[in-house]
Amino acid sequence: LPSPFTTEDLQAGYAYDLAFRQFEVSDTRVFDQPQAGRAFFEGIIRDHLDIGRPDQVVLIFDRKLTPRTPGRFRTKVVTRGVNPQLSCTYKSCRLKQYFKLGVALRTELVINDTRDFGIGRRVCAMNWTALRAVGDSANQRLCDAEAQTAQPAPDVVTLTHVTRPSTTTDGLHAPALAFGDPRVMALLASLVRFSHVLVGFTNRDLAGLVASLLDQPYSSRQATYDLRRLRRKALIRRLPHSQRYQLTPFGRRTAVLFTKAHGRVLAPGLALLDTLVPDDVAKRSPLANAWRQLDLALDDFMDHQLRAA
């Protein structure tokens, strides 16, 4: 690069150095079956619109944009020529992911301020290596978190261990995380946010998220108690030399399973089975129709048995 100083400036002792304005680390994973890869990524976005949602889910239009193109281009309607993008932010950094060219899962961490991670801005081998390590680690953790939610659900014994009081290997009491309890469900839904993948979460972070989902006061003391029982159930771990926590692989699978089952199966299912649901609404639901037919069949059977007796 040409020097910005004149010969006189250099002779006077002035000097300059390069600094990182922006640093990007990317990870590209090509699928041998692109259709399966596309379905996998769109499934991730669909699942996390209501479970551990990222800070943003936007759609990129397949069109040419120039500096003169006005406005921001986002939509909620998926159609031809539109590619979904998942985005999480931490301070001034951004972690984004999209399906590139229809064949590869592309994950990118864009670091706009190296000091967000305690790394200097000067361009040198040490800072370069440190930034590369941060980027590789963040990209890998996001991919690992997505892969964990795609694994089989925990078995019955494991679910019993989570939902019932238990004892750790050190002999410590681990209070139950009761499925269906509003506080527990809000707690688990708060844990699976993709934004926690970068640097974990604190007591304060958790308290704010749970309070917003519960729509009622949730104190730091309550968060401390919940963090303790989450650790003793092996759902989270404390990051070394910090007050931050991260989900374990087992914790993410369990939290996603509980949140999905409650939000997508139990709550809407019970709503459809309510006898106060209007007939015109119930008729449009296979579940409501099947349940009402079963209910009538049981009534007929019991009536017949009572008469026979």
What is the percent of helical residues?
A: 40-55%
Order the strands across the largest sheet as they lie in space.
1-5-4-3-2
How many discrete structural domains?
3
Count of alpha/pi helices: 11
Let me know the largest β-sheet: 5 strands, antiparallel
Mean pLDDT, nearest integer? 83
Uncertain residue segments: 73-79
What separation lies between the terminal Cα atoms? 100 Å
Tell me the β content: 15-25%
Radius of gyration: 26 Å
Structural class determined from secondary elements: alpha+beta
* Series of H and E elements: HEHEEEEHHEEHHHHEEHHH
Number of E-state strands: 9
Q: How would you describe the oligomerization state of the chains in this entry?
A: single chain
What topology emerges from the helices and strands here?
Elements: H1 7-11, E1 23-30, H2 34-47, E2 56-61, E3 82-90, E4 93-100, E5 104-111, H3 125-149, H4 156-163, E6 166-167, E7 173-174, H5 182-191, H6 196-199, H7 203-214, H8 220-232, E8 236-238, E9 245-247, H9 249-273, H10 279-282, H11 286-308
Antiparallel strand pairs: 1-5, 2-3, 3-4, 4-5, 6-7, 8-9
Task: Note the main attributes of this structure.
9 strands, 309 residues, Arc Repressor Mutant, subunit A, 5-stranded antiparallel β-sheet, alpha+beta
Can you put this structure into words, describing what you see?
It contains eleven helices and nine strands. The radius of gyration is 26 Å and the shape is elongated. It has three domains: 14-63 and 71-149, no CATH class; 156-265, Orthogonal Bundle (Arc Repressor Mutant, subunit A), CATH 1.10.10.10; 274-308. A hairpin with a 2-residue loop joins strand 3 and strand 4. Helix content is 46%, strand content 16%. It has 309 residues and is an alpha+beta fold. It starts with 6 loop residues before the first helix and ends with a helix.
